[in-house]
Task: structure prediction
Amino acid sequence: MAELNARVPLIAGNWKMNLDHLQAIAFVQKLVWTLKDADHDYADTEVVLFPPFTDLRSVQTLVAADKYELAYGGQDLSAHDSGAYTGEVSGAFLAALDSKYVIIGHSERRSYHGETDEIVNKKVLAALKHGLVPVICVGETAEDLEKHGPSAVPVGQLRTALQGVSADADIVVAYEPVWAIGSGQAATPEQAQQVAAELRKLLADVLSEESASATRILYGGSVKSGNIAGFMRETDVDGALVGGAALDLAEFSAIVRFKKHVGA
Ligand code: PEP
Result:
């Protein structure tokens, strides 16, 4: 069985609808140089970028040509493999571009595109079918928090998202309280830990103890270089899904290098 401390921390940048493919190339190069100058060890903290779909081919070409250790993936995928689904992108296409991960069920997809827990579940199964690691986003709104407390909604979302998922599936869970996303008001490390611990219990219940020990649970919502160390001190928080701060090179590279300022 995997040890708790065997989970490699993962810092992921969700660019949302920002940076075109030329800007992506410049950003990725600068990020890799900055991390190289700082002697960053990717085996020690994994770095993953989620650019817009139109950037992925450029990012793939750069990463492959210069053998960068960065991983990347799509911000969403279709529940279908192929066919008459205008505007959608198949997991097969993401895999063909050597994407390793794919974000599923981000709160912006849930609220602006009507993605239900059932759709999220179908997308999780599609990702796994195409060999992608789904980064399954769950989180409560401020109203949910008031009505149901901190963990009921994210735990319920994850339960549905995992239907039909095999016990040994490679997945990542991102706990992102909706009220903390883009608001500048992050959860406290204690709040993140409390929900992450509940999510890990659910993984043990519906998948397996092994899976619960091995699966990385990220916190997301107004993460910055100034607060990352606090989250990373918590036992069940294994990394961060970063939005706004992922577009700022100095901020994002400082978040990736959280171990250097963990005592700060
Ligand atoms: C996100 O969009 O996943 C996110 C966490 O955004 P931000 O870091 O800007 O709150």
